């Protein structure tokens, strides 16, 4: 894998992640800060196919660009997104290195979602809402939602990975 | 089979397309409008201002300005404050004309207008009578005392000079009490101030005098609840609910300030002709464009009673809901179908 | 995607984790619902600043003081009243037992807000006249 191919790949994946994030923010939701996290599909796929570093790059690029374009760069939303995104990739990396093979895309997605939510709750508590009560009260609810969306994202990522692997093989065949 | 280079290029283009879409979608998100609400004690009551805006700063600023306006009116029109313009006018009754602000003049003009339309049922010169009563301490004046002062109650004895902006009360001992009109006026002025500060939708509630303008973020009209004059528990405190579109609503009730003596209820809405509490109704709610009129007419119609009251409101083109002394509800024709009753009425 | 295909996309580890998380979060939600107070609260403000916060559930008597006066707030049977007010007109005491709304003692600059926010939330009332 050449350096430029690598960069190209990361840029492309970041673009997809960004687009998914934007698309998702268009969907009207009764609770504004509750997101399905479609961009995570890209993050998981990247993580499994191309490794920790690529996944981290894609996530960082997506979070930064998204906040730049929506005008909330360095704002509270940005800090929470960053914290959530980084911690989810870190958690996935940690788990994969400790217990390789135990989890598939769905499990990794769940781990990523869990750590994403927990770190966002923690950051929100420390930086913005000093009271413990509201944070503790919505925690179970957030985790439940995260579990459901994490499962869905994981399944979609799994599909994506299988598809990409198929087309990769086809490309290899053609090249050969 | 497309070559690798072609595939690369097409996926690159697709990526760029997605990117552009993402950029435009993210940067063109419209700011969300939310409801801000703040309360403050002014004019001896709770004033709650609600605004719809997409900026917290704008909301803060507009609400503060609106409170400032109400506070200003309080210092002008407060009956109990010695420093108010109203008190100055009262002190000079029978002595001399007093220069007043445009706001005070406007309130008095509209008060007199309401007096004329209600045939004197609403009368701000009721001061000498109402000041003899003390509702918290259950003090009722002697019948003699009430009769004696009736001569001072007559809105026709108010002399307004618009050119010089002065007010003169012709008889010594006359007292103006704007309690039945000032809050409605304040609600109007508060809304005016909110509009001046860029707010397009909200509510100004000065005590029970409510004025709404615009619509909620979801496009529906503001909903105002009318209190039940005789609630039995916690669940029927609200009698009915009505949707307002750029309109005001005021309610006068016999349950706001009252005491019961020997089985009889004495409340604060006095009949200017007798000096005694008006007997026909438990509560009167009026809907019209301006709070100054809904407030004044609510008091006047209460004194007129259900039949005359509804007839007058129909003539004026106002909406009205009257709960008479037996608990029966009368409404103007225009309101039928527009009120949602919460209990079975 | 059929159910069989879906399940085959997951490892045993995935499934265990999923069930575990679902159980934990549901348990958490049930726990929270039990612990959360159902009624509103009582908020006491002196000169506009919140000084005391209580739940309606617990009966208690609180003496509230301000530079301008004092009064005693009594919470009993999910209702609130004001007694022993230092003001002259005693309008605040006159209100009696209040289930929700505001009791204000103007001279003492003390206000007691009894909030049951869900009530008006149910009927979605934006303001009250009367």
Q: For the record, what CATH class of the largest domain in chain B applies?
A: Alpha Beta
CATH topology of the largest domain in chain B: T-fold
Quaternary structure annotation: heterotrimer
Strand order of the largest sheet of chain B: 1-2-6-7-10-13-14-15
Radius of gyration of chain B: 26 Å
Strand content of chain C: 35-45%
Q: Give the biggest beta sheet of chain C.
A: 4 strands, antiparallel
Descriptive labels:
heterotrimer; B: 345 residues; alpha+beta; T-fold; 3 domains; 8-stranded antiparallel beta sheet; 3-stranded antiparallel beta sheet; 16 strands; 25% strand; C: 130 residues; mini-chromosome maintenance (MCM) complex, domain 2; 2 domains; 4-stranded antiparallel beta sheet; elongated
Question: What does the secondary structure layout of this molecule look like, with pairings?
Answer:
The complex is a heterotrimer of chains A (176), B (345) and C (130).
Chain A: H1 3-26, H2 39-50, H3 52-69, H4 76-98, H5 105-128, H6 132-175
Helix pairs in contact in A: 1-2, 1-3, 2-3, 2-5, 2-6, 3-4, 4-5, 5-6
Chain B: H1 4-27, E1 34-42, E2 45-53, H2 56-77, H3 85-91, E3 98-99, H4 102-117, H5 127-130, H6 143-149, E4 158-161, E5 166-169, H7 182-196, E6 202-206, E7 209-213, E8 222-227, E9 238-244, E10 248-253, E11 258-261, E12 264-267, E13 281-288, H8 291-304, H9 306-316, E14 319-324, E15 329-331, E16 339-341
Antiparallel strand pairs in B: 1-2, 2-6, 3-5, 4-5, 6-7, 7-10, 8-9, 9-16, 10-13, 11-12, 13-14, 14-15
Helix pairs in contact in B: 2-7, 4-8, 7-8, 8-9
Chain C: H1 3-8, H2 12-35, E1 41-46, E2 49-55, E3 60-66, E4 69-76, E5 79-83, H3 91-94, E6 101-105, E7 110-115, H4 117-123, E8 127-129
Antiparallel strand pairs in C: 1-2, 1-7, 3-4, 4-5, 6-7
Write a concise synopsis of the structure shown.
The complex is a heterotrimer of chains A (176), B (345) and C (130). Chain B is α+β, with helices and mostly antiparallel strands and 345 residues long.
Give an account of the 3D structure.
The complex is a heterotrimer of chains A (176), B (345) and C (130). By secondary structure, chain A is mostly helical. Chain A has 6 helices and no strands. Chain B contains 9 helices and 16 strands. In chain B, a hairpin with a 2-residue loop joins strand 1 (34-42) and strand 2 (45-53). In chain B, helix 8 packs antiparallel against helix 9 (306-316). The longest helix of chain B has 24 residues, at 4-27. The radius of gyration of chain B is 26 Å and the shape is elongated. By secondary structure, chain C is α+β, with helices and mostly antiparallel strands. Chain C folds into 2 domains: 3-35; 41-123, Sandwich (mini-chromosome maintenance (MCM) complex, domain 2). Residues 117-122 of chain C have low confidence and may be disordered. The A-C interface holds A 99, 101-107, 110-111, 114, 136-137, 139-141, 143-144, 147, 151, 154-155, 158-159 and C 1, 6, 9-11, 13-14, 17-18, 21-22, 24-29, 31-32, 36.
């Amino acid at each position: 894998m050449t350096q430029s191919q690598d960069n190209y790949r990361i840029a492309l994946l970041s673009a997809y992640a960004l687009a998914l994030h934007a698309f998702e923010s268009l969907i009207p939701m009764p609770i504004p800060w509750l997101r399905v996290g479609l961009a995570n599909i890209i993050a998981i796929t990247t993580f499994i196919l191309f490794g920790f570093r690529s996944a981290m790059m894609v996530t960082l690029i997506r979070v930064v660009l998204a906040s730049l374009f929506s005008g909330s760069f360095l704002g509270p939303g940005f800090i929470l997104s960053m914290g959530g995104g980084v911690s989810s990739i870190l958690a996935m990396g940690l788990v994969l290195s400790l217990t390789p093979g135990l989890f598939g895309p769905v499990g990794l997605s769940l781990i990523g979602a869990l750590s994403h939510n927990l770190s966002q709750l923690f950051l929100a508590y420390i930086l913005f809402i000093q009271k413990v009560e509201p944070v503790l009260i919505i925690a179970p609810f957030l985790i439940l939602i995260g579990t459901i969306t994490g499962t869905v994202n994981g399944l979609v990522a799994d599909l994506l990975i299988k598809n990409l692997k198929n087309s990769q093989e086809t490309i290899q065949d053609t090249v050969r | 089979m497309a070559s690798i280079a072609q595939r690369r290029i097409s996926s690159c283009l697709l990526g760029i397309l997605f990117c552009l879409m993402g950029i435009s979608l993210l940067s063109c998100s419209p700011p969300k409008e939310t409801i801000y609400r703040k309360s403050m004690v002014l004019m001896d009551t709770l004033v709650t201002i609600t605004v719809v805006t997409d900026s917290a700063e704008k909301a803060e600023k507009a609400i503060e300005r609106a409170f400032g306006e109400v506070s200003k009116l309080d210092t002008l029109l407060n009956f109990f404050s010695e420093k108010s313009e109203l008190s100055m006018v009262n002190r000079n009754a029978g002595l001399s004309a007093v220069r007043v602000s445009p706001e005070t003049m406007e309130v008095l003009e509209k008060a007199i207008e309401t007096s004329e339309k209600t045939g004197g049922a609403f009368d701000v010169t009721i001061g000498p009578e109402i000041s003899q009563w003390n509702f918290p301490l259950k003090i009722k004046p002697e019948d003699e005392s009430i009769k004696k002062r009736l001569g001072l109650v007559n809105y026709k004895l108010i002399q307004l000079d618009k050119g010089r902006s002065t007010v003169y009360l012709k008889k010594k001992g006359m007292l103006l009490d704007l309690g039945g009109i000032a809050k409605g006026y304040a609600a109007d002025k508060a809304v005016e101030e909110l509009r001046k500060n860029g707010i397009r939708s909200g509510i100004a509630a000065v005590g029970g005098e409510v004025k709404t303008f615009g619509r909620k973020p979801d496009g529906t009209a503001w909903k105002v609840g009318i209190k039940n004059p005789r609630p039995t528990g916690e669940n029927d405190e609200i009698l009915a609910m009505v949707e307002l579109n750029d309109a005001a609503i005021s309610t006068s009730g016999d349950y706001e300030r009252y005491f019961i003596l020997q089985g009889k209820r004495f409340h604060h809405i006095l009949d200017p002709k007798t000096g005694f509490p008006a007997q026909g109704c438990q509560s009167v709610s009026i809907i019209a464009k301006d709070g100054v009129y809904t407030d004044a007419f609510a008091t006047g119609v209460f004194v007129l009673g259900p039949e005359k009251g509804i007839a007058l409101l129909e003539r004026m083109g106002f909406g009205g809901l009257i709960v008479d002394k037996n608990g029966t509800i009368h409404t103007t024709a225009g309101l039928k179908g527009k009120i949602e009753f919460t209990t079975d009425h | 995607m059929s159910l069989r295909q879906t399940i085959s996309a997951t490892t045993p580890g995935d499934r265990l984790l999923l069930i575990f998380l679902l159980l934990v979060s549901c348990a958490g939600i049930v726990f929270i619902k039990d612990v959360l107070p159902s009624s509103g609260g009582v908020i006491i403000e002196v000169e506009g600043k919140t000084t005391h916060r209580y739940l309606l559930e617990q009966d208690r008597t609180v003496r509230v003081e301000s530079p301008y006066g004092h009064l005693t707030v009594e919470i009993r049977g999910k209702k609130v009243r004001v007694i022993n007010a230092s003001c002259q007109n005693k309008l605040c005491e006159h209100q009696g037992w209040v289930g929700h709304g505001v009791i204000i003692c103007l001279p003492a600059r003390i206000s007691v807000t009894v909030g049951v926010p869900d009530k008006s939330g149910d009927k979605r009332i934006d303001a009250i006249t009367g």
